[in-house]
Design goal:
Blueprint: E1 4-7, H1 11-14, E2 36-39, H2 41-70, H3 74-97
Antiparallel strand pairs: 1-2
């Protein structure tokens, strides 16, 4: 089972008691951090599942837009494409801001 280690530092402890080398005076550079979380198969499965459902959602929306266009329902086609584009722009905006 493959596991990844994610390290979490407290922001309050990062700026406290720094010496000239940039290390905290009470820490040795060879000691591992105290706080760590395991990133196991459950979390990897959840991430892949959310990616797959996102891709499925976008694909079905595009397919629906193509069907609307093929049937000559241009109003529904334009509405579907505009909402699809708007949601992608908003999602990208939040990702860039974050």
């Amino acid at each position: 089972m493959a596991e990844c280690t994610v390290v979490k530092f407290s922001s309050a402890s990062l700026g406290a008691n720094l010496n000239n080398s940039g290390l905290k005076s009470t820490e040795n550079s060879a000691t591992p951090p105290r706080y760590h979380h395991r990133f196991g198969c459950y979390y990897i499965t959840c991430h892949f599942l959310s990616i797959a459902t996102y891709i499925t959602d976008i694909s079905l929306s595009c397919w629906l837009a193509v069907l609307y266009h093929a049937q000559g329902q241009e109003a529904y086609f334009a509405l579907t494409v505009s909402l699809l584009t708007l949601s992608a722009v908003v999602s990208t905006g939040f990702s860039l801001r974050w």
